[in-house]
Amino acid sequence: MYESGGSRMTSAQGAGSETSLATAPSPSATPKPSWTRRTRSLLGVQIVGTGSYVPDNIVTNADLQAQFGYDPAWIEQRTGITSRRYALPEQATSDLCIEAAKRAIRHGRVDVRDIDLVVVGTFTPDYQCPTTANLVQEALGIDAPAMDLHAACSGFVYAMVTAAQFVASGNSRLALVIGGDCNSRIVNPRDQKVAPLFGDGAGAVLIARGDSHQGLMCYQMGSDGGGGCMLDRQAGGSKNPVTHADLDAGRHFLQMDGRNVFKWAVRAVTDSIEVVMRKTGLSAHDVSLYVLHQANIRIINNVAEQLAIPPERMFNNLQDYGNTSGGSIPIALDEANRAGRLDRGDTLLMSGFGAGLTWGTCLFRW
Question: Which domains does the chain have, with CATH numbers?
Answer without folding.
Answer: 46-209 (3.40.47.10), 214-365 (3.40.47.10)
